[in-house]
Amino acid sequence: MIKKVILPCLLLSSMMVSAQQNLVQYVKPIIGTSKMGHTYPGATVPFGAVQLSPETDTLSYEVNGKYNGDVYKYCAGYKYEDKTITGFSHTHFSGTGHSDLGDFLIMPTQGKLQLNPGVASNPKGGYRSAYSHANEVAEAGYYKVKLDDDNITAELTSTTRVGMHQYTFPKSDQSHIILDLMAGIYNYEDKTVWTYVRVVNDTLVTGYRQTYGWARTRTVYFAISFSKPFKSYGRKSYDAKQAYRGFWGKFNQDQNFPEIAGKKLKMFFDFDTQEGEKVKIKFALSPVSQENALENMRAEISGWDFEKVKAQAQATWNKELNKIQVTTSNDNKINFYTALYHAYINPTTYTDVNGEYKGLDQGVHKADGFTNYTTFSLWDTYRALHPFFNITQPARSNDMVKSMLAHYDQSSLHMLPIWSHYANDNWCMSGYHSVSVISDAIIKGTYTGDPNKALDACIATAKHRDYEGIGYYMDKGYIPAEKSGISVSNNLEYSYDDWSIAQLAKKLNRMDVYDEFIKRSNNWKNNYDSASGFMRPKLADGTFKKQFDPKDTEGQGFIEGNSWNYSFFVPQDPASLIEMMGGKKKFATRLDTLFTMHLPDEFFAHTEDITREGIIGGYVHGNEPAHHIVYFYNWTDQPWKTQAQVRHILNMQYKPTADGLGGNDDCGQMSAWYMFSSLGFYPVAPGSDVYSLGSPLVNNAVINLENGKTFTVEAIKQSDKNVYVEKVLLNGKEITDHKIKHADITSGGKLTFYMSPKPKK
């Protein structure tokens, strides 16, 4: 009888999800808004289509026809160091190193109407306003700031597809809401292709804007609802004189005219306000139509209770944050849950409430049984973010793979996404890393669609000969340096991607495909120069390029990195790399040199997103290609160095401050590295079901899995000094090979680290 009672109890306890904690309090969206983090502090919900956040300047992408380097500081629209706010727009990238978006900027003002944003040195000369961080609040799902020049308090919150504004005005008969339809991020003179605005009545406005930017055919539709009727409205057009203007001149289109169209438009809506009166706005987006935007609004926010919408947003965040419950210091909790928050911002929802979205073919499609996602920064996120989703967000990961395959079906080039957003591929960065994400999801049991169809899409993408040297790669086994300025990094990344295709083919027993792609995955060896011990550009005649400096990032055949970092980019086969570099002892010494050498400023002076804070020795943590390297000590006889360096990186590169990120967060990749490493394990080669062990930062963590089970990480004798691992137990059984498998996590159980101040040699 006793056994019959105990077994169900044990089963029940293993299936129970831990009680929710208040974890929103540890999220500080202001982290990463200074220097190179490129995050934004505004309001969004997990994977939301709306990112409602302040802009702090209006820099153009170009000056006198040339790239304006200062615009790079504004990839997320907001820079913590700035003293003014120009308004609040509805779309933003989080942590990227290039940009777009910044759609539909709203700015409340009072007094004489000003439609020019003005300049930071004289904010009162335009509609922008001075502000102070002392009067600024940034939380998960909520943002608040006082606009000092007009004495207006701005508050923002959101649902998935609707941004909600609440502006507290002073008493005035000249209160205004400005809608700047020219504003944008990485903006330039002709970025806006066309704009349309329709004033339906004195509280409802709809329209759309088409832009040519990072995404070259992007149209976003909107619907705006005001909580009180505006007494008057108007527009100002900044369009240059056109050869043909039709006969619309019969009307005065500048005042109270209900249908406006042009390239460069600004709208304004006038109100009388009482002291302390709150004017609220609901601003809905759609990729499909004005009607869908209005339907999204009505479905997601039915009334005008701002506090209710805010509470719903924060409750949604709290539910997602509770998927991992950690015990650690307060600062570490802030770092961890802000990282989790940043990881759950992207990819973003790209379907309306009725399931419709616009595809790459510019047609309207309906997502059948899945949510379509966009914002795939794959060169960054395949490494850790998508593997992280396979543990904590498997249902969403499944939908993301389905979204990539829908992209493939609609692509005129028959390719999986490289870097996609808003029904466009912007083709940024290198590799074809969708294949890694897809292989990883199928191998780990996340994807529920047809795996063979998915493999076919991977093969077609990897054989697209006219994309970034793939033809040379297939024919010669490397890309000649004369043919590409990033020949070496492309070869290394293609080799890894091909390995992941081979793993998927092996799982599906398509051994002809496996044989072909496992052979291709060894192409990395063709760029290894045994004489220098580095990956090196190779010329078409088979000789290595003579002018070569492994520290330099310019003209050496690498994208956003140097040979010292990229020479370790063989995550799929560290054993072979170690052998080629002279064995375990010499390899470990090379790793030691990477982490302790001095990299002079001149070697990263031309790399926009890297500063001294993002570098440890010559190891560049502030960029992605080296993120796996610290775990390579596990393949030598010195795994304790992985443990020490992981903890060093965690403490040095992540801080609970505005400048607390050592590089771009890159749509959550930097954050995913932090969380994996804080938990004590990391996916060195996605496409494998193996995680390499490190040194956990947390005292305890409980991962509440979607299957109802829990996986617990426990660090015995955890402290800042006890960074070394004495032994590791998985469900009570000692691990000696420094790795665990995906099934060990998803089956539920406990991983116990016994920590020590001394390395176990």
From TrEMBL:
One of its GO terms (biological process) is carbohydrate metabolic process. It comes from Pedobacter miscanthi. Residues 1-19 form the signal peptide. The lineage of its organism: Bacteria, Pseudomonadati, Bacteroidota, Sphingobacteriia, Sphingobacteriales. Pfam families: Glyco_hydro_92 (PF07971), Glyco_hydro_92N (PF17678). Keywords: Calcium, Hydrolase, Signal. The keyword Membrane does not apply. Monomer. InterPro entries: 6-hairpin_glycosidase_sf, GH-type_carb-bd, GH92_a_mannosidase_put, GH92_N, Glyco_hydro_92, PNGase. Residues 26-286 form the Glycosyl hydrolase family 92 N-terminal domain. Its cofactor is Ca(2+). GO terms for molecular function: carbohydrate binding; peptide-N4-(N-acetyl-beta-glucosaminyl)asparagine amidase activity. This is Glycoside hydrolase family 92 protein. GO terms for cellular component: cytosol. Residues 292-756 form the Glycosyl hydrolase family domain.
